[in-house]
Model the fold of this input.
Amino acid sequence: PLHTGLQMFLSRLRSRPYVGHFQPLVRRCTTETKPEKTLQELHDELRRLKAQEEAVKNAIRYYKDDKKKRVLVLGAGRSATTAINYFLEHAPVENWLVRVGDADLALSESKVKGNPHGVPFKFDAKDKAQRLKEIKESDIVVSLLPPALHDLLIEDAIACKKSLLTASYTTDKMKAHDQAAKDAGILMVNELGLDPGIDHMACMSIIDKIKADDGTLTAVQTFTGGLIAPESDNNPWNYKFTWNPRNVVLAGQGTCKFVIGGALKYIPYHKLFSRIEPIYVHDGGNFEGYANRDSLKYRELYSIEHVPTFFRGTLRRPGFCAAWDIFVQLGLTDDSYRMEDSEHMTYRQFINSALMHTENDSVELKVCYHLGVSVDSPEMRKLKWLGIFENRPIGLKNATPAEILQSLLEEKWKMGADDKDMIVMWNQFIYDDAGGNKHEYITSLIVKGTDRENTAMSYTVGLPLAIATRAVLKGEISLTGVHIPTTKQIYEPILQELETYGVKFDHFHNAIPSVNI
Done:
């Protein structure tokens, strides 16, 4: 009878209003009662379940509180961890309810971790009805979805008059909705992550200071890299995946644009990884940098349209680019076509498919001949370590070359359980002061993660996004329309709070002696 009573009790619990938002807890309540338990065990279980029911009722009361502001977080992937933790940590004080939606419900649940201020749920970004419902019931939308899905949210956010913040690059579609966002009285801020994001804020804080002192900028260069920490660096590439693997494989495709000494420069993809710059970072060591997308458009966004030198780049450890360039030259990063019968192909056949046909030469020799490297070169050692010359089945059906390469790299560049990642940023400013004296000002940032889940990448992508969200909800940012964090009203409070979390730049200033000829 006691067991039957428990089941009736739990049936009533399942029928409570709003309880669907707390299904993980209810599932535990309704699946752990067993009739073979002793009377004392059932009494103990009843007390436990009553306590759990009270927790559910408290959560329901919390959810129904109309005074609470609802933060809608879409996407619970690798870069979302820190942002979600920030929202949940501040929820009790700020009176927030944090809804975390992802296509993978288990992933959302793992990020919320049963916190009573958070509600995980399954979210389909392509379901317009669900998008509208969730956005309409929220006070602000924070998207950590893949960039291609952000455009789906724009019109919904405007229609529901809810501000939208992301860490991704501003798309042409979003820029085209600037006036519509202003008319709706909402703010859309993009590029609130690391790069793009903290790089904009760090640069603008120095640029605005130089301008305030009547200085004249002649060069701005900014480089960022998501890397593996030295203590976890144990492969010849000096690299592991610390963020989206697909983005790494496809990085740089297109034409990079920048200006040096007043001369416009363009680097096509097939030349990108052979045009690198050596960079030394204080406390970080030696790196190499390659150009990152379109630097030219940021001169206007930074309000330095006439600066003679402006360059945005990506950092890697020395030697990485030369080896990666082999994949580029062979077309192995191409994502535009699918290879027939790829599931039965080996990795050796895969790389050989991009090489000329000869009867007697090995695949290794053909790579060396085609790329002009020696058999025992650092580049070939990196390729052999990856296993790309092995007669091992790929197992991917009708895959693109980029997908095949990514599959191999995810196996070899996977972070270990105890591995730590590291982000590095280096910014250089050359300027003339009001008296005509030339100066160099350098800022650098190094942040290390604590483990595979709490990464430096998640930390530096999620924190500025979360801090900006809190500032918007508190009314500290009053802008409307489409923006990136280049205005003082946005970047100053974010940089100040980032310092309290240990994200703090080192600053180095050097006077450049004049040269008399």
User: Anything to note?
Assistant: The longest helix spans residues 39-64. The first strand starts at residue 69 and ends at 74. Residues 15-22 have pLDDT under 50 and may be disordered.
